[in-house]
Amino acid sequence: GEKRKKEKNNDPSDVEGFHGPWAPFVDEITVSRPPEEEQKEIDEYLAKKCKAKRPTFEDRNAPVSARDPESTTLNKESEDSSSTTLHIKDPYDYQGRSFLHIPQDVGVNLRHTKAIQKVHYFPISAHLFLTCSMDCKVKFDIRSGHVVQEYDRHLGAINTVTFVDRNRRIVSTSDDKSIRVSGYACGLDFSSDMSSYVISGDADGRLAIWNWKTTRIFERIKAHDDVCIDAKWHWHEKSRVLTAGWDNVVKLWD
């Protein structure tokens, strides 16, 4: 048979109408009411059940004027004509759940697991803040409450944390007897023989070539006017290195 077609609206700027992969089928019924034929059968069944209902104590002791001549039950008051207004486009989501559905807690926990030692606002703007904790982690938080970045290189409880270098890096101290400077997540790469040299960029736009065996810097080159965010060795020509910077430039070094 033919495949069922789905409604199409892949425009993310349309907040109300965007479907994406959750688009409903064109012929999909989302109303939680039975079809007309089934509704008639239900009404007939309820009517028969109402007529066959035994009179209650209140029915027997009610005045004659209040009785229904065609039924053993009391006259009912007229149906309530009140109504409700729905202020949202659709009372059901893409899974057919009502807007009254209680959301499920998926168990995501962004908190520190141990006591927090220090909190520090981003200088001047205060749109970000840092936290450090005895769980050996430094977290970079934002106003939404979501963790933007997390540093877990310390081996002991972290005592203090602060911004340095024109707010481009953070410095943290720890019970592991170390002071660590955390900055941009610049990429690194090994030389093609995987044993001689390692290259990496830094926040000042420089390319550093490290001797892997001696763990010392072999050479440092001013590669970019802004952050040198990534560097890669050429796969076949060992003398060539490719760098990418936040100055919108990619450079090939030989």
Describe this structure in words.
The chain has 254 residues and is mainly beta. 8% of the residues lie in helices and 30% in strands. Among the domains are: 116-182, Thrombin, subunit H (Beta Barrel); 188-253, Thrombin, subunit H, CATH 2.40.10. A four-stranded antiparallel sheet has the order 1-2-3-4, with no helix packed on it. Strands 8-9-10-11 form a four-stranded antiparallel sheet, with no helix packed on it. A hairpin with a 4-residue loop joins β13 (241-245) and β14 (250-253). The longest helix has 16 residues, at 36-51. The model has no long low-confidence stretch (mean pLDDT 72).
Mean pLDDT: 72
Sketch the topology as an H/E string, one letter per element.
Answer: HHEEEEEEEEEEEEEE
- CATH-derived architecture of the domain at 116-182: Beta Barrel
User: Which structural class do the helices and strands define?
Assistant: mainly beta
Q: Per DSSP, what share of the residues sits in E-state strands of 2 or more residues? A: 25-35%
Shape: elongated
Kindly report the spatial arrangement of strands forming the biggest sheet: 1-2-3-4
CATH topology of the domain at 116-182: Thrombin, subunit H
pLDDT < 50 runs, ≥5 residues: none
Largest sheet: 4 strands, antiparallel
